[in-house]
């Protein structure tokens, strides 16, 4: 069914509508036509109304399912339908509105009312649309071009459209029918209301900001608590304080939080706009020319041209390209993590549509599947020129992928914006709450309980006092007062009086602290990546403290750990290793008759010049690398040759051979030219035995310049070694070299050859040709044919390719593991590739036991997991044992393992392992793995990636980190933090994370403490004032306590305090475990601070009462009044709180001096002018005349110094005891830091290399490091397709189809 909304309709949604004809017609109604038009989703009639399927249960005019056809084709409650008579009765015309009705059945009841309403709305009656019984199901029944379909929809109100537009809610896949896209017919496509190409990763929009923001803010119980308090304060004669103090402060808190959220979301919007405003060439059907338009102006049905290196602006169907047979190379690493290029091919029917004028004249339509999240499937049909062309994933160019090594492609847009497969795999930016916030919420509930208890006690006290002292309280006129009413009014009064036990400024203080912490993270020059001018970006400052508590890191591989660059590193030829730069202490030498170490490439070239037997093997080795491959050469205008490779491994091998003098120059359908020492040589390609994951090898048969036929084979050692001839002198030494290569994390291939006699070849070729044309299990027949020729091989040597890691990746992973962080790698690469990278980045080591799960069905997966679980349970594993375990599981098995009945076993094994690698996984599986651990394990998770395929995983984790890398900015835009390199994760977590967690914890604990210390004096005071509810201090002064006089210490502690330096945190990563154990902020720590606050409040109140009890006389004979005593107690509480801040500060800076001594001076200097001026403007009138009373009293000065010392002496002694007799890890490191301790020990490179060789000598098993991929293409067809000797117009060497081959 169609979506009938214009593209420019601001309220257009993705809902499914059915058009019904309402205009008059003399045509008899066919049931078949009715069904077909409903299914087609559009009608050729002028009068129409949209009846949405979502309303069918509540439509008062149509009944339950009026608009849906029943089995006979008529509406369910059609009053003119006789179930016993399939004929249609003649129509007559209604004189009232011109509508037609059956002669004997004039509409009555609800039908008549409905028709009258439609008449007033200038609409005809409901009638099924006319269609013949033999029409095609998806006929093109569009209206004439001059009919503007959008007007009907613009004038129609549907609240669901507005809601879905605001929420950016895509259609439910299951509810949609096939999508119809008309070629070069924008008006018809407009009517379907397809989404525009705008994308948004923002957390809010203009309509959702207020409800989402308020929901997020009031999910914090403190804000909810103060909202309730501020409402109570508005009740007359209840509040003992000013009625606006709480609500005013709460409004400021919410305003500051709103500004922070808007600022962060604006950054996300700016990043989205940068992408939405990118340019692409779009065909104008009217002029037949391509014009540049912004991506946001690209719509479904547009034909676009994408040039080499550019990303696809939407999901496209490939029509043609600059290459033979409409082939193009696509990089999809941004979608699925695959490093190798994919080959896409257009249908032969559209290959000829190269000229823009031909494209503009293209007429027809595409019927395809509705938008969905599957990256690997696509089904559709192209209707044009009276033919139907089946479409498959080979023609799909998804958004997020980029065009590579192809001049240009033309494609027609099928999915746009949030309906693309890329965005369907993304989720809306979630609201994430930190672990600290969750603990705070729970403790606020506990404090709420304490507040209720205090209020009840005080209310009962007032009630008891009123009853027991009734004779002495007659002046209050309390006779006849309702005791129950009095109790509840007192309860509200005390609620307000004690409400500030929870600091109202807490969350705004924390928000500002986090904002500055995020700013400092972004300003850290150590995390600035200069080559790409990429600073660290903090998009969600509210999560900074979570960085200090991470227990699991889920990482992508491609572009996150690696650079997406393959480099030819070294090789073993004829038993000798060659490398460009010989490592320290690794020069070749003979030990016990066996050569170890490396020769240089210069030695290799010198050996070639000698013409020795080794030189002949070297020549054969590099000739094989230069000829046996699927690479296509491109010669740029500069004369430089660039190799197009579907597999990055092959590109590296060919490039390595070229750098050593064997340059591949030209590919023709019948063979290749290579250049050796300036001489061009022709190798005729006879046959290709393709690489696949089962064969693990590729072979090519060539007729060499001397006329001999040679078989060139490269592949895994396991399959090459078993096909060697008996006499192979280099097998043992080559295997030893391959083990050494694998230990370095290099990707290896065995290289072998064989001379094929002419007669044997001719006989084998007949078998091969027969296998290549069979229609029964062709791939197996080709594999069997290859087995016949791939035998008696001679081993030439082995290659080693480095999948280059980003700088510092091995060291970073090792440091994270030392810090107690488990690292899981989730990648789309093959198992061998993933294991090799795991070795090279030190996630895996040679002495680790790999638990591999690679099954094809659920039962085998269940059995595999069960066996491993039982084996691990039977052995009582020590920590050392678990350090030697690593789990490797492929995507297919993972899909089964994530099902509800197997997920517990999978997770149990994964949690016991030091490292986990999930390979060949989809973006959805990445997110599901993260969600599984998040759901089952009460630990904080971090996900890091650089591609759009990582977005779901990033958003599923507690903290998401995106790398601004080679695969685009999609992950960085959707993440909470964005960094330039993986190695920056070390400082982000171990330094900034630890600092932030410690700082935030102290700031929160201190904020609660200082409020409890002050406001609990209000409770102690009720025992002295007869439970009257009288405040001991003036209300605005109480408000200034949090807003002015003690606001700076939490900021300074939260922003600048460093309990340990950055250098010591990275040197001793074990300190990070304190955050994982929640040592700085947990329930026990919170209540230790809270109880300390209760204790200090009691000391302060009792001390103040006793000091003023015997020294409250003034020099003029008067005694100290109530408010002057309150100011003295207020000052003592403030100085105690500031002293506590000084005691817990680890570092004193100029900001600390301003915050603590500065706040003391601020109060002493600000109080006199405020107490004089404020009463004159009817504010704080209670303070009138208190200044001389307070400042002229020795009791005041004695109290503000003695009471803080008395309170804090216990804290000081406790701190001394802990550091001296029960020190924490950071206490020890602090002492080392003060002593400027320098770690000493053997640090030389040679020592580390010797230690590494020693460890490798005791390996538990051998590995040779095979990892190779051919790109999964039709290699034989591809190699015989190109002729790179012909030029194309844009300056590249054009790979054209050889006509004789076609």
Number of helices: 44
Widest β-sheet, arrangement of strands: 24-21-20-33-32-31-30-29-28-27
The largest pleated sheet is described as: 10 strands, mixed
Report the principal-axis shape.
elongated
Termini gap? 41 Å
pLDDT < 50 stretches: 1-111, 117-163, 1239-1248, 1250-1262, 1287-1302
| Beta-strand residue percentage | 15-25%
Report the average pLDDT across residues.
79
**Helical content band:** 40-55%
Please report the total strand number as a whole number. Answer: 42
Q: Which structural class best describes the helix and strand composition?
A: alpha+beta
Rg of Cα set? 39 Å
GO biological process, one term: endocytic recycling
Pfam families: Cation_ATPase, E1-E2_ATPase, PhoLip_ATPase_C, PhoLip_ATPase_N
Binding site for ATP: 556-558, 650, 691, 714, 747, 827-829, 920, 926, 949-950
Keywords: ATP-binding, Golgi apparatus, Magnesium, Membrane, Metal-binding, Nucleotide-binding, Translocase, Transmembrane, Transmembrane helix
How would you summarize the topology of this molecule?
Layout: E1 17-21, H1 31-40, E2 48-52, E3 91-93, E4 100-102, H2 109-120, H3 150-154, H4 159-167, E5 179-182, H5 186-190, H6 209-218, H7 221-233, H8 245-276, E6 279-284, E7 289-294, E8 303-307, E9 315-321, E10 327-331, H9 333-336, E11 342-345, H10 356-360, E12 364-368, E13 380-384, E14 387-391, E15 396-397, E16 402-404, E17 408-415, H11 421-424, H12 435-468, H13 483-498, H14 506-522, E18 537-538, E19 550-555, E20 562-573, E21 576-579, E22 589-591, E23 594-596, E24 599-600, H15 601-610, H16 613-627, E25 632-635, E26 641-644, H17 648-659, E27 662-668, E28 671-676, E29 679-689, E30 697-703, E31 709-715, H18 717-720, H19 731-743, E32 747-756, H20 758-773, H21 778-789, E33 794-805, H22 809-818, E34 822-826, H23 831-840, E35 849-853, H24 858-874, H25 879-882, E36 885-890, H26 891-897, H27 903-912, E37 915-919, H28 923-936, E38 940-945, H29 951-956, E39 959-963, H30 970-974, E40 977-979, H31 984-1022, H32 1035-1045, H33 1048-1056, H34 1062-1067, H35 1073-1076, H36 1083-1109, H37 1122-1144, H38 1150-1155, H39 1157-1173, H40 1186-1191, ...
Parallel strand pairs: 19-34, 19-38, 21-24, 34-37, 35-36, 36-37, 38-39, 39-40
Antiparallel strand pairs: 1-2, 3-4, 5-12, 6-7, 6-8, 8-17, 9-15, 9-17, 10-11, 10-16, 12-13, 13-14, 18-40, 20-21, 20-33, 22-23, 25-26, 27-28, 28-29, 29-30, 30-31, 31-32, 32-33, 41-42
Helix pairs in contact: 7-8, 8-14, 12-13, 14-31, 14-33, 15-16, 16-17, 20-21, 22-31, 24-27, 31-33, 31-36, 31-37, 36-37, 36-41, 37-39, 37-41
């Amino acid at each position: 069914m169609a979506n009938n909304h214009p593209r420019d309709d601001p309220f257009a949604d993705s809902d499914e509508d059915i058009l019904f004809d309402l205009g008059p017609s003399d045509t008899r109604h066919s049931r078949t036509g009715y069904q077909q038009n409903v299914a087609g989703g559009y009608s050729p009639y002028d009068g129409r109304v949209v009846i949405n399927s979502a309303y069918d249960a509540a439509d008062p005019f149509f009944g339950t399912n009026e608009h849906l056809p029943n089995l006979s084709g008529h509406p369910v409650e059609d009053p003119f339908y006789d179930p016993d008579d399939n004929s249609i009765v003649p129509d007559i015309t209604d004189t009232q509105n011109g509508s037609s009705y059956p002669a004997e059945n004039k509409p009555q009841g609800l039908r008549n009312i409905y028709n009258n309403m439609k008449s007033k709305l200038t609409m005809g009656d409901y009638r099924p649309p006319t269609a013949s019984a033999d029409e095609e199901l998806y006929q093109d029944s569009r209206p004439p071009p001059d009919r503007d379909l959008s007007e009907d929809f613009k004038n129609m109100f549907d609240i669901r459209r507005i809601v879905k537009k605001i929420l950016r809610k895509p259609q439910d896949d299951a509810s949609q029918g096939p999508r119809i896209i008309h070629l070069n017919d924008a008006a018809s496509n407009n009517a379907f209301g397809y989404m525009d190409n705008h994308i948004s990763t923002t957390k809010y929009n203009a309509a959702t900001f207020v409800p989402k923001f308020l929901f997020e803010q009031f999910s914090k119980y403190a804000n909810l608590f103060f909202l309730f308090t501020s409402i109570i304060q508005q009740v007359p004669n209840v509040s003992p304080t000013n009625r606006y103090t709480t609500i005013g402060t709460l409004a400021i808190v919410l305003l500051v939080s709103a500004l922070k959220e808007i600022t962060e979301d604006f950054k996300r919007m700016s990043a989205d706009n940068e992408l939405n405003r990118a340019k692409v060439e779009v065909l104008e059907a009217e002029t037949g020319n391509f014009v540049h338009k912004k991506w946001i102006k690209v719509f479904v049905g547009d034909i676009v041209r994408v040039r080499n290196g550019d990303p696809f602006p939407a999901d496209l169907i490939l029509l043609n390209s600059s290459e033979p047979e409409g082939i193009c190379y696509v990089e999809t690493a941004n979608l699925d993590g695959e490093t190798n290029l994919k080959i896409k091919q257009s249908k032969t029917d559209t290959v000829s549509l190269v000229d823009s004028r031909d494209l503009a004249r293209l007429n027809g339509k595409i019927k395809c599947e509705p938008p969905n999240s599957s990256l690997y499937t696509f089904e559709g049909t192209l209707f044009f020129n009276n033919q139907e062309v089946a479409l498959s994933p080979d023609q799909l160019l998804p958004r997020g992928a980029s065009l590579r090594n192809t001049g240009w492609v033309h494609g027609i847009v099928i999915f746009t914006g949030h309906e693309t497969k890329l965005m369907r795999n993304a989720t809306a930016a979630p609201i994430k709450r930190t672990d600290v916030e969750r603990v705070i919420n729970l403790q606020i509930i506990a404090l709420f309980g304490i507040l209720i208890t205090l209020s009840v006690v005080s209310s009962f006290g007032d009630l008891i006092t009123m009853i027991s002292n009734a004779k002495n309280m007659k002046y209050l006129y309390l006779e006849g007062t309702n005791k129950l009413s009095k109790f509840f009014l007192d309860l509200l009064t005390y609620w307000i009086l004690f409400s500030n036990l929870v600091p109202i400024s807490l969350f705004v203080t924390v928000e500002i602290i986090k904002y500055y912490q995020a700013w400092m993270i972004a300003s850290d020059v150590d995390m600035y990546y200069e080559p790409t001018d990429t600073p660290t970006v903090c998009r969600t400052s509210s999560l900074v403290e979570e960085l200090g508590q991470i227990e699991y890191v889920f990482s992508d591989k491609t572009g996150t750990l690696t650079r997406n660059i393959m480099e030819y590193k070294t090789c073993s030829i004829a038993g000798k290793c060659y490398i460009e730069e010989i490592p320290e202490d690794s020069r070749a030498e003979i030990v016990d008759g066996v050569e170890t170490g490396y020769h240089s490439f210069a030695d290799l070239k010198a050996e070639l010049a000698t013409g020795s037997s080794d030189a002949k093997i070297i020549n054969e080795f590099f000739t094989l690398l230069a000829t046996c491959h699927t690479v296509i050469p491109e010669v740029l205008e500069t004369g430089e040759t660039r190799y197009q490779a579907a597999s990055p491994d092959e590109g590296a091998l060919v490039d390595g051979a070229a750098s050593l003098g064997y340059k591949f120059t030209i590919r023709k359908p019948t063979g290749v030219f290579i250049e050796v020492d300036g001489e061009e040589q022709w190798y005729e390609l006879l046959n290709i035995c393709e690489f696949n994951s089962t064969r693990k090898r590729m072979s090519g048969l060539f007729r060499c310049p001397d006329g001999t036929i040679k078989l060139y084979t490269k592949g895994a050692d396991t399959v090459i070694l078993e096909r060697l001839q008996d006499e192979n002198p280099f097998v043992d030494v080559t295997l030893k070299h391959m083990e050494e290569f694998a230990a370095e994390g290099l990707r290896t291939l065995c290289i072998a050859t064989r001379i094929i006699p002419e007669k044997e070849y001719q006989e084998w070729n007949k078998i091969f040709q027969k296998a290549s044309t069979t229609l029964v299990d062709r791939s197996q027949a080709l594999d069997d044919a290859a087995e016949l020729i791939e035998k008696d091989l001679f081993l030439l040597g082995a290659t080693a390719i480095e999948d280059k890691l980003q700088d510092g990746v091995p060291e970073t992973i090792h440091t994270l593991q030392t810090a107690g962080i488990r690292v899981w790698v989730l990648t789309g690469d093959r198992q061998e590739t993933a294991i090799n990278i795991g070795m090279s980045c030190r996630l895996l080591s040679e002495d680790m036991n790999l638990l591999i799960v690679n099954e094809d069905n659920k039962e085998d997966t269940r059995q595999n997991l069960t066996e491993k679980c039982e084996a691990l349970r039977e052995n009582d594993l020590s920590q050392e044992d678990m350090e030697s375990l690593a789990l490797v599981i492929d995507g297919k098995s993972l899909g089964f393992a994530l099902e509800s009945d197997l997920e517990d076993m999978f997770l149990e094994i994964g949690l016991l392992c030091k490292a986990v690698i999930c390979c060949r996984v989809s973006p959805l599986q990445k997110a599901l793995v993260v969600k599984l651990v998040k759901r089952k394990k009460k630990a904080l998770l971090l996900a890091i990636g650089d591609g759009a395929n990582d977005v779901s995983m990033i958003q599923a984790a507690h903290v998401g980190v995106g790398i601004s890398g080679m695969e685009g900015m999609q992950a960085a835009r959707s993440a909470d933090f964005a960094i330039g390199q993986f190695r920056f994760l070390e400082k982000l977590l171990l330094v900034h994370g630890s600092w932030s967690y410690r700082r935030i914890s102290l700031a929160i604990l201190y904020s609660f403490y200082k409020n409890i210390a002050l406001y609990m004096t209000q409770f102690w005071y009720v025992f002295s004032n007869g439970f009257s509810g009288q405040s001991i201090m003036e209300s605005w002064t109480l408000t200034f306590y949090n807003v002015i006089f003690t606001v700076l210490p939490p900021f300074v502690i939260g922003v600048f305090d460093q309990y340990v330096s950055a250098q010591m945190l990275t040197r001793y990563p074990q300190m990070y475990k304190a955050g994982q154990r929640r040592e700085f902020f947990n329930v026990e720590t919170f209540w230790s601070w809270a109880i300390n606050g209760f204790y200090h409040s009691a000391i302060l109140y009792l001390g103040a009462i006793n000091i003023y009890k015997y020294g409250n006389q003034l020099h003029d004979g008067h005694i100290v009044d109530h408010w002057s005593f309150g100011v003295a107690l207020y000052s003592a509480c403030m100085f105690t709180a500031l002293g506590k801040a000084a005691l817990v500060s680890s570092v004193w800076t100029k900001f600390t001096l301003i915050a603590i001594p500065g706040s003391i001076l601020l109060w002493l200097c600000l109080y006199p002018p405020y107490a004089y001026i404020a009463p004159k403007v009817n504010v704080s009138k209670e303070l009138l005349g208190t200044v001389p009373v307070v400042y002229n009293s020795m009791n005041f000065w004695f109290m503000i110094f003695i009471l803080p010392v008395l309170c804090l002496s216990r804290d000081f002694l406790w701190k001394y005891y802990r550091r001296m007799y029960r020190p924490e890890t950071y206490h020890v490191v602090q002492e080392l830091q003060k002593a400027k301790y320098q770690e000493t020990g053997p640090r030389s490179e040679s020592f580390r290399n010797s230690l590494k060789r020693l460890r490798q000598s005791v390996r538990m098993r051998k590995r040779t490091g095979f990892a190779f991929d051919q790109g999964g293409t039709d290699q034989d067809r591809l190699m015989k397709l190109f002729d790179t000797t012909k030029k194309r117009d844009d300056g590249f060497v054009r790979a054209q189809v050889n006509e004789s081959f076609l």
